[in-house]
Each structure stands twice: as C-alpha cells, then as structure tokens.
C-alpha cells in the first residue's frame, strides 16, 4: 500500500460497477475522501484498467454485464497478488460470499451499504497494511518461517511466500503469538475488524488458503522444509506451532 511501497499518499482505487447510480455515488464519494478513483462499467474494462495502471484497491461488483464477477476476481488476484480486493454484491447468501473470498477477495460488502461503512472498512484495511512506528518487533521467526511485519514479507526456508494481504495479516498475528492459542474472535478483530458482522467462515477460508501456500512454498525450498503447523482448536480458534511438521 502507499507508504510501504512508496506510492502516492492518495490510495489509487478502481471501481468496477455497471450500475450508473452506484458507480457515480462511489466515484464522487471516494474522491471527496481523498481516493484517486477510476470507474469502469465492465469486467473486461476493469481488467484492462488494472493492467494499465495497477491500483492499490479494487471495488468489484459481482453482477457485471460482460463477465462473471467471480471469474474477474480470480483473474485480478492472479495478476495482482498484493492489491486489496473488496467485492460489492447483492448476493447475501453465505455460499456466494465464500465463493468470492475463495476467488481472492479480501473483504465484501452486501448491497445496499452506506458509504460511511465502506470508508471505515477501507481505513481499517489500510491501517493494517501500513505498519506503525511503535511496532515492538519487526520480524517473527518460527522454525524455518520468518514473518517481517514492517517489510510485509514472509520467507519459508530459501523461498519467499506469496501471500494475499489478509493471509499475511493472519499469519502475522499467529506468528506473534506462536505456541499460544488465539481465539476466532481475536483473529477476526485483529485481521478484519472489531465490528465485523459477516460470517466467520471468512477466517476458515483464509486459513485454508494460507496453509496451502505455506505447504507449496515449503516443497519448493532448497532444501525442502516443513512449514510450522497451524492447529485447529475446535470451538476456540487456532495455534501456530513452534515445532514444524
């Protein structure tokens, strides 16, 4: 995001939304609050805009006229692993929301929503992506795993782990408390928002993806290594083990 990556102080934001009323409202409102906003009305137009000038944040409507929003989310995440991707959807069924998160979204908002809620969510995400000057420790080492919270990098053995923003935030919290049980409620509050009101299945989806990425990277390390295990504590939360295997 802007400060850690040396970008403009104004976060660049791409809105992919075909509804004129919603799109205009977002474009005007976000600009008024300091975002450098671009608005596209189609999925393919959004892909091209993101390719030409990769933004910090993308707001993606799922109901697009030329493509399925889930496919667009998957493509955006594949091309731009570090951006913040927020889905805007009228589909409020948990299965649809989970599909969006599985496709690579970091967050979602169900329509209709207030601009103030969106702005609060974006501020929360940006705070978490910008390490504060009072961080007591920059890096956490757990076996062959090194998580650097200031550089927002993660290494496992000889390899850097490619993580989406929420996967990194989740791993950072677990690494900070390695060997200690962390509750679901605490993880949701610290990685998402203390006022999060969506399904906590979001946490499970992100955790499953994090485990897959760690396992894949461990196999690519030279020599191959084992990632620290993330244990599921049923009815409570998770624990990053200090031994690996």
Describe the overall structure:
It is a single chain. This protein has helices spanning 2-5, 20-32, 43-52, 69-79, 94-102, 115-129, 165-176, 184-192, 201-220; strands at 12-16, 36-40, 57-61, 84-89, 107-110, 139-142, 145-148, 153-156, 159-160, 182-183, 228-233, 237-244. The chain is α/β, with parallel strands linked by helices. It has a 5-stranded parallel beta sheet, sandwiched between helices. A 4-stranded antiparallel beta sheet has the order 6-7-8-9. The longest helix is centred in the last third of the chain and has 20 residues, at 201-220. It is globular, with a radius of gyration of 18 Å. Residues 1-8 have low confidence and may be disordered.
Number of helices: 9
Low-confidence stretches: 1-8
Q: For the residues shown, what is the average pLDDT?
A: 86
- Beta content comes to 15-25%
- Topology pattern, helix = H, strand = E: HEHEHEHEHEHEEEEHEHHEE
What percent of residues adopt helix (DSSP H or I)? 40-55%
Q: What is the C-alpha radius of gyration, as a whole number of Å?
A: 18 Å
What shape does the CA trace take?
globular
The biggest beta sheet is recorded as: 5 strands, parallel
Number of strands: 12
First-last Cα distance: 33 Å
Structural category is alpha/beta
Strands of the biggest beta sheet: in what spatial order? 2-1-3-4-5
What are the key terms here?
4-stranded antiparallel sheet; 245 residues; globular; 12 strands; 22% strand; 5-stranded parallel sheet; alpha/beta; 9 helices
């Amino acid at each position: 995001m802007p400060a850690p990556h040396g970008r403009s102080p104004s976060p660049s934001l791409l809105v992919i939304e075909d509804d004129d009323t919603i799109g205009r409202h977002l474009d005007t409102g976000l600009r008024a609050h300091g975002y450098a906003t671009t608005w596209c009305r189609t999925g393919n137009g959004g892909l091209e805009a993101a390719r030409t000038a990769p933004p910090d944040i993308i707001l993606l409507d799922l109901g697009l006229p030329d493509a399925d929003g889930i496919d667009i989310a998957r493509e955006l995440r594949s091309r731009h692993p570090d951006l913040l991707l927020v889905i805007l959807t009228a589909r409020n069924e948990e299965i649809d929301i989970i599909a969006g998160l599985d496709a690579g979204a970091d967050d979602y908002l169900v329509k209709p929503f207030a601009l103030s809620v969106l702005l609060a969510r974006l501020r929360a995400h940006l705070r978490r992506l910008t390490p504060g000057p009072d961080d007591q420790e920059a890096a956490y080492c757990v076996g062959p795993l090194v998580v650097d919270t200031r550089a927002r990098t993660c290494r496992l053995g000889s390899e850097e782990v490619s993580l989406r923003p929420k996967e990194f935030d989740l791993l950072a919290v677990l690494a900070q408390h390695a060997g200690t049980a962390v509750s679901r409620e605490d993880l949701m509050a610290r990685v998402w928002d203390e006022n999060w009101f969506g399904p906590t299945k979001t946490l499970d989806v992100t955790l499953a993806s994090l485990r897959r990425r760690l396992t894949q990277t461990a196999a690519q390390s030279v020599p191959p290594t084992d990632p620290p295990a993330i244990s599921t504590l049923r009815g409570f939360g998770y624990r990053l083990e200090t031994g690996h295997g």
